[in-house]
Amino acid sequence: MREQLPRVDWMVGTGLVALAVLSVFYGSAELTSNIAAGLIGFLGRTAAMRDERGGGTDASAPRSARDEGAVGKDVRR
User: Fold this and answer.
1) Directed axis angle between helix 7-26 and helix 29-52, to 10°?
2) Residue 37 φ/ψ, nearest 5 degrees
3) Looking at residue 22, what is its pLDDT?
4) 8 Å CB contact between 20 and 33
5) What is the dihedral of CA 28, 29, 34, 35, to 10 degrees?
6) Contacts of 71 (CB under 8 A, 6+ apart)
7) DSSP-derived secondary structure letter, 55
8) Each residue's pLDDT tens digit, 5-48
9) How far is Cα 3 from Cα 46, in angstroms, rounded to an integer?
10) Are 50 and 56 in contact (CB under 8 A)?
11) What pLDDT, in 10s, does the model give residues 49-68?
12) CA separation for the pair 34, 22 (Å, rounded)
């Protein structure tokens, strides 16, 4: 079954996109960049939470080479 985002995440994401579009046409460059940064952070958090819950395309596959043990081994003795 397909996992959907909570309603609050949809509302916040939609609001940030609408504000970003409006700020391009009616706001200043600083406002546009701040809203865009907030939107990127929100989308990153949402994607990270989805990966933690196992909502990716293949939950059984490791997410990175570090999970396989190929990189990042602790060599301290």
Assistant:
1) 160
2) -65, -40
3) 92
4) no
5) 70
6) 64, 65
7) -
8) 778 888 888 998 999 999 999 988 999 999 999 989 988 888 88
9) 13
10) yes
11) 877 776 555 545 555 554 55
12) 13
DSSP class per residue in 12-43: HHHHHHHHHHHHHHHS-HHHHHHHHHHHHHHH
Is 69 a residue whose pLDDT tops 70? no
34: left (phi over 0), alpha (psi -120 to 50) or beta: alpha
Instruction: State whether the Cα torsion 40-41-45-46 is positive or negative.
Output: negative
CA–CA separation, 16 and 62 (whole Å): 32
Those residues whose C-beta lies under 8 Å from the C-beta of residue 9, and which sit 6 or more positions away, are 46
